[in-house]
Amino acid sequence: MPPKRTKPHTVGSASFDPDKFFDEWTSERAPQGNNLQTAVIDAFNLKSTDDYVYHAIASVTLPQVQSAINHGASNGMHAWYLYDDAKKRDAPPSADIKAYTDIFLSTTVITKALTAFAANAKKESTRAEVAKHLQSNLHLPPTSSKLALPSKLKVPHKNPYLDYWIWSCQCLEWTGPTPGTAMIQQSHHILPVLYHHFGCVCPTYDALSLVQQVCRGSNKNDASKSIVEVGSGNGYWAYLLRRIGLTVHAVDNEASLWRTTWIGDTIIADGISFLHSPPGPYKELGKGANNAVLLLVYPQVTADFTGKVIRAYEGDTIIVAGTQNTNGFTAFKGETIAEWMARERPEYERIWQIPLPSFAGKDEAFFIFKRVV
Fold it and tell me: H or E element: which one contains 63?
């Protein structure tokens, strides 16, 4: 079962090259003001009359998304934070939104940034509630652990998705998740556009670095482990991990369609079958991919997909990027991935949990589970 060889592409663009896209990327190419439509057309070299329909939580075109953005907070479009009586709170200040997005920059240390985010929050403000929520869900290993957060960079790590996400937070007046986020069912027209071009959840420099450390292990003489990403989607995570020198076998059944595809060698297969018995060229992964690291990015809830994949895996490290509350957007309905793993796979210990950039109305995190038995 060799990978399906296709060129990375963006539907409607005559010339999309991921490497060139990254080489030329600067944060200034992200949307300016509220103009998402122009930014996407320019970045992906689309026609000015582009009418592609982005199917996700809703079906929208770029003009429709731009119209929704132009309407701002009207009709409850920015009602992310509510009082107990369901009345909308005042929008968070722009400075608080910036302080939230700064947590995820490669030029900061996430733990220190979270501490500052909390320390400088006004009492009983939305920012204070967000800070408490993020800190309460933070799970770090003991200082003796071989895994560590990376040092902050002097030159920012390139990540176009992160730049788009930072813009979206200011545009939608979003300063991060709270416990009440689990009850939010609405989203915004912007989300399908980000999904189609970049994927369902934004990677960070911290997350990529931790994956790299897990794969390379503590012994520098050991060969680096490869990654099996089941449900790899449009390949954005796989592409970024490959940019830092890791081997990623991206497996997807192509049940979903994407406007932008970042890699050209996705293995079109049922992920569970692939794990049970890696075919031909992937025999070295071992039964249950026991010689590889398992990566699940925004794993689906339906048909017990996440549970079946995890049960099929026989290796020592499971990494998940997805929801950290019980809203049922990823992994399992009514419980978190951490709760399910503790009950169903107690031989794996949760050794890391750090927040990921959360789109408005979402609550995402990065988890590492390590086999201890």
Answer: helix 62-70
The structure tokens 């800190």 sit at 135
Helices and strands of the chain, counted as H and E runs: 13, 11
Distance from chain centroid for Cα 239: 13
Q: 3-state class of 250 per DSSP?
A: strand
d(CA 233, CA 204): 18
| pLDDT per residue as tens digits for the range 271-287 | 999 999 999 899 999 99
DSSP state at residue 364: E
- Cβ atoms 303, 289 nearer than 8 A: no
| Topology, domain 200-371 | Rossmann fold (3.40.50)
Question: What one-character DSSP code corresponds to residue 152?
Answer: P
Q: How far is CA 97 from CA 103, 114, 131, in A?
A: 10, 13, 12
Q: What is residue 348's three-state secondary structure?
A: strand
Band (210; pLDDT cuts 50, 70, 90) = very high
pTM above 0.70, yes or no: yes
Report the C-alpha gap between 354 and 135 in whole angstroms: 9
- Only one residue has tokens 């026989």, namely 314
Q: How far apart are CA 96 and CA 107, in angstroms?
A: 18
Q: Nearest Cα to 9, choosing from 259, 325, 333?
A: 259
In a 3-state reduction of DSSP, which class is residue 367?
A: strand
